[in-house]
TrEMBL record:
Record's signal peptide: none
Protein name: P-type Zn(2+) transporter
Annotated coiled-coil segments of the chain: none
Domain Hemerythrin-like stretches: 640-773
Source species, domain of life: Bacteria
Location (main, coarse): membrane
InterPro entries with a match to the protein in the record: ATPase_P-typ_cyto_dom_N, ATPase_P-typ_P_site, ATPase_P-typ_TM_dom_sf, ATPase_P-typ_transduc_dom_A_sf, ATPase_P-type_domA, Cation_Transport_ATPase_IB, HAD-like_sf, HAD_sf
Keyword set includes Ubl conjugation: no
Length: 779
């Protein structure tokens, strides 16, 4: 958050810019009036010299001051050409030409200010929305204080329509937040108690309570303000190169003008050459295109800090990705429940989630949310005690419950065979878990995994289509775990078991192959981001060390903004090049025509102004997404959410089938026949009706959205395989008719069940990615 003197500095800069912008507009109007006055005088057979000379002199004074100021800052003084042109017009008695040149110069500067203002609009909007004040609870009272005075741990109330002043933890049950100013997401986001809220977002619902996690200076929006300020102040290498070109262009223009005069003996030809020689396409169009591109990217939640970063991003051929928090959600989610004999999965999960309600830990809150989605009746825990890094212990419905590490659940006892086996199973699958003990007995383990983001596969496919030649996954995880994720996503290479120092070395090695971008989100990624040609941070959770070290920050927590940023940067650079090449080519052609005597000074001024206007408006095309990148969601987002919720509600069914697999793996026991029949009932009454409804009702509707010949054919084939496996299991279960199976029959039941679970999980993942894609829109 800006310090106390920063608003004054920003206001000073604003008024200075306001004055400069209106100075050029006013000059253009005054000179236009003087130009018209001379024309009227000539029509009335009076002398037009005075108003036309006044117009030239007025512009000469302003241009002289600006040229001296530019030279004092060691910038290219291209206004020297305009000065020489106007002085030459006065010496040669070409008063009308001089007045026209003066008007064109003033109007060109006004157009430049307008174009830059349009291009910087999105960046300026971020700066102007900096939270200024906060409402702090003090006992039963509420006091309004400057945002800079908020301390960590304060309890704030954010009223409807107000911006959240600092990063904090949501204490209210729910909140509706407009995050468009920060992330570019147009739809309000619903947050629940325990979620971390970014500063700068707008409270779109009722008043909400917040516990501060950071000071104003440390908060997300302050980091964004700092980065936006850098983006506004920095000049692209392309722009600096334009300044250098201007230094040799001035002598070249003077040489051509001198030759035209020397060969023809007509000084008006030299004047005409100078009139059309101003390199506005180079000096104006390039920076306008670069700033417009940065502004468009900011509007889409992609903060490109400067022009150098934009050009590096446009050149990127190799992309290196950190795994956790970048390719995955960075949040542990429930993927299964394992219980020993005598305990039911739903009851164990209900007791654990009930106790987790008192914890602010992200994993605890994720488990609570999952329990509510499963419609489990959570109880209010009593005497809850939380041990940081270990878990919780308390009482739920009169039972003593412990949730967390194995050591906490065992409470000093030795691990039994069941717990040891689950630890080995979790290690093999790369899972973590929360062990649950009830009344001193091991009751189960909640299996947790960091899930791959829904948009990750699509983002990686789009990056390859955009011309990225090599993708590398960089991770500190074990090799086998990392390779499993990399293979699932289609990476070209995977580098696992890497420390932060190893990550830096790996990124530097990739940079030797070509322009390399590194994408990460954690503090430990900051060195690698700094080592890459262009560092890209997933900054939606706060502008921390990684966002500060990065050149590009994705303000919205979505990886598919990366290929969009790549497209935007490449198109912006292309537009800048188009504007410069076309504009300079036209100016060179006009210089040649003027040198040959076919372009009088007055007409030359009009031609040059036309070239300037054309290239600047072409540069402003970078403000808009191309038509092919705009799309509308084919599926309402509410429908997509409802379909994904149905899958979530079926998760207990898959958990039940996996538990049956584990029990059947234990060989024959007295309850085997009952277990086989129970699983058959679950498949028939809960799983298959969902799949049949999808095939008969949902898929025909989706086919119209996807289009093409039989677009849902592959998905329907998966349904048929699910029906086949389910039918095979049910037939075998019916043939047994309650009798105990022999070893071959038991083996076949396990095979069918394992295959069914695997294909249903894959099918759900495919469907959820399809729902996400169809409901997503790029405004």
């Amino acid at each position: 958050m800006p310090s106390a003197n920063k608003p004054t500095e920003r206001n000073s800069t604003y008024f200075s810019s306001f004055f400069t912008r209106h100075l050029h507009k006013s000059l253009a109007v005054i000179i236009a009036v003087l130009l018209a006055a001379g024309g009227v005088a000539q029509l009335l057979h009076k002398s037009p010299v005075l108003p036309w000379v006044a117009a030239v002199v007025l512009m000469l004074v302003v241009a002289s001051v600006e040229s001296l100021r530019a030279l004092a800052h060691r910038k290219a003084g291209v206004d020297v050409l305009a000065l020489l042109t106007m002085v030459g017009a006065l010496i040669l008695g070409q008063y009308l030409a001089g007045a026209v040149i003066a008007f064109m110069f003033a109007s060109g500067r006004a157009l430049e200010e307008y174009s830059s203002g349009r291009a910087r609009q999105a960046l300026s909007a971020l700066l102007e929305r900096s939270p200024r004040s906060a409402h702090r609870r003090v006992g039963t009272a509420i006091e309004e204080i400057p945002a800079e005075q908020v301390q960590i741990g304060d309890q704030l109330i954010v009223k409807s329509g107000e911006a959240v002043p600092v990063d904090g933890l949501l204490l209210s049950a729910t909140a509706e937040l407009d995050e468009s100013a920060v992330t570019g997401e147009s739809l309000p986001r619903r947050r629940v108690r325990g979620d971390q809220i970014m500063s700068g977002v707008i409270n779109a619902g009722g008043p909400l309570d917040l516990q501060t996690l950071k000071t104003a200076e440390q908060s997300t929006y302050a980091g964004i303000v700092r980065m936006v300020s850098e983006a506004q102040a920095a000049k692209a290498p392309f722009t600096r190169l334009a300044d250098r070109y201007a230094l040799w262009f001035i002598p070249l223009a003077l040489l051509v003008a001198g030759l035209a005069w020397a060969i023809s003996g007509d000084p008006l030809r030299a004047l005409a050459v100078l009139v059309v020689a101003t390199p506005c396409p180079l000096i104006l169009a390039a920076p306008v295109a670069i700033i417009a591109t940065i502004s468009l990217a900011a509007k889409r939640g992609i903060l490109i800090k400067n022009g150098a970063a934009l050009e590096q991003l446009a050149d990127a051929k190799n992309l290196v990705f950190d795994k956790t928090g970048t390719l995955t959600t960075g949040r542990q989610q429930l993927v299964g429940i394992e219980t020993p004999p005598g305990f039911g999965a739903d009851e164990v999960f209900r007791l654990a989630a009930s106790l987790d309600q008192v914890s602010q830990h992200n994993t605890a809150q994720s488990l609570v949310a999952e329990a509510r989605q499963r419609n489990l009746a959570l109880s209010i825990p009593e005497n809850a005690q939380e041990t940081p890094g270990e878990g919780l212990r308390g009482e739920v419905d009169g039972k003593t419950v412990a949730v967390g590490s194995l050591a906490l659940a065992l409470n000093g006892a030795s691990a039994d065979n069941w717990s040891a086996a689950r630890l080995r199973y979790m290690a093999l699958r790369g899972l973590s878990g929360a062990f649950v003990a009830v009344d001193g007995q091991m009751a189960g383990v909640l299996l947790l995994a960091d899930q791959i983001r829904l948009d990750t596969p699509r983002a990686l496919r789009e990056l390859h289509r955009a011309g990225v030649e090599r993708t590398v996954m960089l991770s500190g995880d074990r090799q086998d775990v990392a390779e499993t994720v990399a293979l699932a996503l289609g990476f070209d290479a995977v580098l696992a078991e890497r420390s932060p120092a190893d990550k830096v070395a790996a990124v530097k090695a990739e940079c030797q192959r070509g322009t390399t971008a590194m994408v990460g989100d954690g503090i430990n990624d900051a060195p690698a981001l700094a080592a890459a040609d262009v560092g890209i941070a997933m900054g939606a959770r706060g502008a921390g060390a990684s966002a500060e070290a990065a050149d590009v920050v994705l303000l919205v927590d979505r990886l598919d903004r990366l290929p969009e940023g790549l497209h935007i940067s490449r198109r912006g650079r292309q537009i800048a090049l188009q504007s410069v090449i076309a504009g300079m080519g036209l100016s060179a052609l006009a210089m040649l025509i003027a040198a040959l005597g076919y372009l009088p000074p007055v007409i030359g001024a009009l031609v040059q102004e036309g070239i300037d206007v054309a290239v600047i408006f072409n540069a402003l095309r970078a403000l808009r997404l191309p038509v092919e990148q705009r799309s509308e969601a084919a599926m309402p987002i509410e429908l997509a959410d409802r379909l994904r919720l149905q899958h979530s509600e079926l998760q207990p069914v898959l958990d039940r089938l996996e538990q049956a697999c584990n029990r059947l793996n234990g060989g024959l026991h007295p309850s085997t026949s009952d277990e086989i029949d129970a699983v058959s009932t679950v498949i028939r009454e809960q799983l298959l009706p969902h799949e049949r409804e999808d095939e008969e009702q949902l898929y025909p509707a989706l086919a119209a959205m996807v289009r093409g010949f039989d677009p849902m054919g592959a998905m329907s084939h998966t349904h048929r395989e699910i029906f086949r496996l389910a039918r095979g299991y049910q037939q075998l279960a019916d043939d047994l008719a309650g009798a105990s199976p022999d070893e071959l029959q038991l083996q076949e039941l396990r095979r069918l069940l394992f295959s069914l679970i695997a294909i249903v999980r894959l099918h759900f993942a495919q469907e959820e990615e399809l729902y996400f894609t169809l409901s997503d829109s790029q405004p």
